Amino acid sequence: MVQSGGKCLLISTHHLPLVGGALTVYDALARYGVGRIEILTASHDYHSGEEVAGWREFDAHAGYIIHRLSALRVGKGISPRSNPLQWLKLSLTSRLVRKRVLRAVRTLLSDGGYSCLCIGDMGFLGWIANHKKILGGIRIVQYVHGEEVSQQAHSARAEKARRAILDKVDGIITVSRFTADILIEKGVAPDKILVSHNGVDLNRFTGVLPPNARSDLDLPLGPLVFSLGRLVARKGFDTLIEAWPFVLEKIPNASLIIGGIGMEEQALKGQVQALNLQRNITFLGAVSEECLARYYGAADVFALPNRTMPDGETEGFGLVFLEAAAMATPSVGGRAGGAVEAIVNGETGFLVTPTSPKEIAEAICRLLQDDGLRSQMGQAARLHAEQNGWHEKVQAFLAFTADAQALTGLKSDTLVQGDRPDLGVKSQNEKTL
Q1: Where's the Glycosyl transferase family domain (predicted)?
Q2: Domains contained in the chain, CATH given
Q3: Is residue 245 reached through a cis peptide bond, with omega within 30 degrees of 0 on the bond before it?
Q4: Residue-wise pLDDT tens digits, 374-411
């Protein structure tokens, strides 16, 4: 039975302790939701098929209920033309996984107390919206970060399936006005959309830097720029590296540290070697959650010249810019996608043409060379972050997932106008099913 003002079950293909911006958002929603939001996710990484290291310990200390299946999706697809037998095996496995997921959702929702199911991965879990009737007519909301709709679908059939999901769900939460506009262009009714910019955890990103932070992290003491994200093309790491010789012309001792892992890692490291920048650019690999705030705060500038790819893939918002801001560090970001809503241009940092290494370098040098400007923008960035904490975001999320009309009066986030089967692996703090 659907209960007004009840709990929300948020389903995602993966979750912390794996790394990802969307995962950070869902973790924050659940923690600040104080028992009103539960997570259904996987105990195994769909990329590798291996069990996620440390998930039991994470779940035991998360502070909210996490339900886990071994998997909620299969790995990367295979073309039926390239390998028909493997494609058939993958298809059959995918159907089996979907049956298990649907059974798990029905089992959880049948306990009562839920007013909504929020789908956190449109591409691989949006199909659940097709089963609304057998889920008891519960309100279903789709969370859209950006690239799921900005990136061109791989086929007309895929685009049709995407559009069908948007039609069937009761509401859509987007992380930026940029994403909302794309949805409206696709024919989604404006009053079906809630624009909710990502929030920042002010209890974690306090704006206070511990003494000797750089030495503790073994960082250089000169001018320092930090960059962070999945090492993929749309993040613009290659252009940032290309900009570094221009930075060194003005600031010879400037250092760049890059955190993150991804498919472009070897290519980026090769680029650094080709430009003979090994002394000035360091790759950190995956950055632990415990150290992240210190990296942001220890840096003089945060830079990520994100860009829009030819197929439309782009940054839906850019949580990293808000995290840097919370640590009073100004940002340099690409004028693309939703990043234009994460950085207040000229106040909390600079937006630049993401394909121009010289423009990127000029913005970075301007901040590194002007202590007064950097301090001023850092203070403004912190104030901006303080206005985007999670308490108000969660209030809007819970109101919208229960009933869109309940959002009336909220200021921080806005509706755009116009027999119990075993679920498999269970979290240590999961209720008994």
Answers
A1: 223-382
A2: 7-199+389-415 (3.40.50.2000), 213-386 (3.40.50.2000)
A3: no
A4: 999 999 999 999 999 999 899 999 999 987 555 544 44
